[in-house]
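Exercise: predict the structure of this protein bound to flavin-adenine dinucleotide.
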Amino acid sequence: MKKNITIAGAGLVGSLCALYMRKRGFDVSVYERRDDLRLTEITAGKSINLALSVRGWTALKKVGAAENVGKIAIPMYKRVMHDTEGNLYDQAYGNPGQAIYSVSRANLNLILMEMAEKNGAKIHCNQKCLDVDFSSGDTTFEHTKTGEKTTVNSDLLIGADGAFSAVRSKMTRRNRQQYSQHFIEHGYKELLIPANEDGTHKLEKNALHIWPRGNFMLIALPNLDGSYTCTLFAPYEGEESFEELNNNEDVKKYFKKIFPDLVPLIPDLCEQFFSNPTSSMAIMRTYPWHVDDKSILIGDAAHATVPFYGQGMNAGFEDCRILDELLDKHNNNFKTCFKEYSQVRKPNGDGVQDLSMHNFIVMRDKTADTKFLLQKKIEQKFAQQYPEKWVPLYSMVSFSNIPYSEAWQVGMKQEKMMQSIMNISNINETWDSEEIMEKMLGLI
Ligand SMILES: Cc1cc2nc3c(=O)[nH]c(=O)nc-3n(C[C@H](O)[C@H](O)[C@H](O)COP(=O)(O)OP(=O)(O)OC[C@H]3O[C@@H](n4cnc5c(N)ncnc54)[C@H](O)[C@@H]3O)c2cc1C
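Solution:
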């Protein structure tokens, strides 16, 4: 008999997963708590746009979604750093032609929902997952407008309901289910740089802009309409924190001092600052990611992370692809497949979380450090000369499908090695020499 699957959550990962499961020929019903995206106006909240990289593209390609998404993607080939004097410095992300891509969250979600529906998935909006009975396969949803409750029975419940997953919360009440959550001390707020009157971008378009400021930072990603979405990541409390910004004067003073080149680009800065929310960020861990052959977690529900590597969605898309491969391998046997899914994906969930925390320090602090930029130049040169011996950490994460856990381990070894290279006394003068390349060869 054809298996029927219920998915809680029609966000980015739930919608892509629905498409994957329909392509396998399962009956798929998706229940989403929000209003139908197609009928609502998008407001500031959880990141307006996101960076899509190779893992995301690989998963989209496998189900034929990459072409549609390609139409809304803006390549970003480099980081452009802005210092407090308004000087700009760039750093390429990879080899010439390699880029990460800025996409609108809402448009990407719409494309995936529509493709899932076109392929036969049923999507029910305003349905909030309330309760799960893992033994019977019953899931109860409540209509968010009418309060009406519906219980559906399915062979499999996929929890794609994000960082505060109701499905995961039910799992954590089971015996021996591991769970932890850690909120970092920083929050974030989005601000919009509008387009020029002729619709062009006010900053260089094909780049991710960063204002690194030590313990905090601001970044900006381009949108198709010529605007930029900025995200200020700052501590909630203490010096130069959100708690110090209470009125227009505070905000003007803060931006003039810390991000002076940004002030003329956002005419309604204070209005935006006080009308857009300040949101928190957390790392959530759980194990296992399945209950027998009855339920699995996917995307943020399984491994919510802080956004500093731009990998949360990419990791969730990768979950969909790997799940599909495992279903092939296990001939659609849910029980054996899900056991392996938990075992294989959990270290990678941990890996993407470790990488994300690490990259916060790189972005907010190291990108303003000339020694770090020199280190990256040396690594890039060595990687070009010996591509089979060295793939830079950023490239392993963003331009390959190497498992995150492996990228993290190799990256930490590389870092240790680079420390001894950077400690060479005259490295500023000798970095471009064959001697340094040979030293690196010797250390590998
Ligand atoms: C500021 C910021 C910037 C980011 N930038 C990037 C980036 O550049 N690149 C990247 O790869 N990732 C990025 N991420 C991470 C990315 O947003 C997430 O990893 C991604 O959205 C996860 O998708 P998801 O479908 O698992 O969860 P979500 O996108 O959270 O979707 C979950 C869905 O489930 C629904 N839902 C919730 N509870 C229930 C319930 N009880 N019943 C039914 N439905 C429910 C929600 O309404 C939502 O539609 C960023 C995150 C933030 C916060």
